[in-house]
Amino acid sequence: MKLYILAIATAGLLSGCEPQPNPPGVPKGEITPAAAPEPAAQQRGNSITVQMNKVSADGVGDSAGSITIAEMPGGLVFKPALQGLAQGEHGFHLHENPSCEPAMKEGKRQAAAGAGSHFDPANTDRHAGPDGNGHLGDLPRLRITDNALQQDVVAKQLTLDDIKNRALVVHEGADDYSTDPAGDSGTPIACGVVQ
Q: Could you give the CA distance from residue 178 to residue 182 in angstroms, rounded to a whole number?
């Protein structure tokens, strides 16, 4: 019996798990190894923070604050803490590439064009808004009242695994959720790479 207990304790230490208090029915003095943790993307309440920067055709500029993204049972919750952006509604999209650099697009250098197209793994080629059957990267509009009061938005169709190694882009105007390619929301004004 002592050899069996030693094997269990050793297995727990070798796997990096801490011994846990004994569950009911296990004699005092015997230890049981902890269960292995769930993968990070499956843990409820798991979150990441994306640093956002102002962008222009000249490049990536000063900080524009951050957006914290939390994975919940109903999808991803985006909590903006942005600064220096105009009040009002702004188009908000997940782009396929992990870049905020300017690039040539339609014959001219454009802000954050290095981020590529909207994230669209099903190749729908449609900008249909967050509840439509189009790009998965079509996120709800960001509403900025002031630097202290910014409304959270929810993307029901995404997980943290979907958004890693991609870029979040905020546009100067509101998204109409129909016009291609970006809902007629204008030039990108802030961008951040999701690590």
A: 8
Predicted confidence at residue 94, as pLDDT, reads 96
Q: How many domains does the structure of the chain reveal?
A: 2
Q: What is the pLDDT of residue 183?
A: 67
Residues 142 and 65 placed together within one structural domain of the fold:
yes
- For residue 114, is pLDDT > 80? yes
Are residues 8 and 71 part of one domain? no
Instruction: Please give the DSSP secondary-structure letter assigned to residue 8.
Output: H
- Which residues constitute the domain of residue 24? 2-33
Strands (E) across 57-180 are located at 59-72, 75-82, 88-90, 92-95, 103-105, 108-110, 142-146, 149-150, 153-155, 166-171
Helix, strand, coil shares, percent, the chain, to 5: 10, 40, 50
Residue 140 and residue 188 in one domain: yes
pLDDT at 134: 78
Beta bridge partners of 118: 95
Mean pLDDT of 5-20: 41
- Greatest mean pLDDT among 56-60, 86-90, 105-109 lies in 56-60
Alpha helix stretches (DSSP H) within 96-163: 160-163
Residue 111 has pLDDT above 50, yes or no: yes
Quote the longest CA-to-CA distance of the chain: 76
Beta strands 153-155 and 149-150, pairing class = unpaired
